[in-house]
Amino acid sequence: MGMTPDELIEEVAESIVSAKRIVVFTGAGVSTESGIPDFRSPGGIWTRFSPEDFTYQKFLTDPEARRRSWQMLKMFGTMKEVKPNAAHYAIGELDRLGKLDCVITQNVDGLHQRGGVPEEKVIELHGTFKWVKCLSCGRRYPIEEIMERVEAGEEVPDCEECHGMLKTATIAFGEPMPVSETKEAERRSRNSDLFIVIGSSLVVYPAAYMPIYALESGAKLVIINKGPTPIDRYAHVRIYEKAGEVMSRVLERVKKRLN
Ligand SMILES: [Zn+2]
């Protein structure tokens, strides 16, 4: 295409200013700058643990798998100390400018909300790490509350109410996708006129269908991701950079144009 990095940023800003229904889609790459490891990257968690040991089926049927799973969470801590980065704040700012329909995210870290996007505009396709839920009665507990019990020595915490099995409200390998979130994400994607992918390699389905729905409906596609994605050739603008700096620069230009 022969555009300079500056011209690419300018083009994204221009697209944002002229769009009416902007959907931002984010993956692990938006949170790595906050220090959250990309689980799939070299050195990531799944190079140290085996995903087959942490499937939904195993969790449900094998007490040892549940024990291992809580031990792994104990190693992680609760992500309380993790902070939103420039990319999260830029997306929050997009919303304050009246330029955000919603964020669809593959992340479970809750950083979009802390970066200024209202809760009701964040669709969490892979669940959230903020809550632990009882698989029997559905009661939800803040993760901090349950991790305190694990820290205090409970190897496999259970529900205070019904003694049912507790599990983080994230979607495990092999666990069905949340139906209403997936439907809503598809609807918003199809309804968008600008779809911005940030920090996702678009290889995990069905999440990766969202930009395809958007394209089918005639939306412009922008992809900001360090590595390649399977649909790069359909992108109106493609930027191979880290999310934080790019998004800050994009927002600067957007604000200039709107004023
Ligand atoms: Zn319960």
Task: Provide the fold topology.
Elements: H1 5-18, E1 22-26, H2 45-48, H3 56-61, H4 63-76, H5 86-96, E2 102-105, H6 111-114, E3 122-124, E4 127-134, E5 140-142, H7 143-151, E6 166-170, H8 179-191, E7 194-198, H9 210-216, E8 220-224, E9 237-239, H10 243-258
Parallel strand pairs: 1-2, 1-7, 2-3, 7-8, 8-9
Antiparallel strand pairs: 4-5, 4-6
Helix pairs in contact: 1-10, 5-10, 8-9
Indicate the structural class. alpha/beta
Q: Total number of helical segments?
A: 10
What is the top-level CATH class of the largest domain?
Alpha Beta
Shape: elongated
Q: What share of residues are in beta strands?
A: 15-25%
Q: What is the annotated CATH architecture of the largest domain?
A: 3-Layer(aba) Sandwich
CATH superfamily of the largest domain: TPP-binding domain
The biggest beta sheet reads: 6 strands, parallel
Strand order of the largest sheet: 3-2-1-7-8-9
Hetero groups in this structure are: zinc ion
Distance between the termini: 30 Å
**Poorly predicted runs of 5 or more residues:** none
Order of helices and strands: HEHHHHEHEEEHEHEHEEH
**How many structural domains are formed by the residues?**
2
Rg measurement, Å:
19 Å
Mean pLDDT score, rounded? 92
Percent of residues in helices: 25-40%
Q: So what's the oligomer here?
A: single chain
Number of DSSP-assigned strands: 9
CATH-defined topology of the largest domain: Rossmann fold
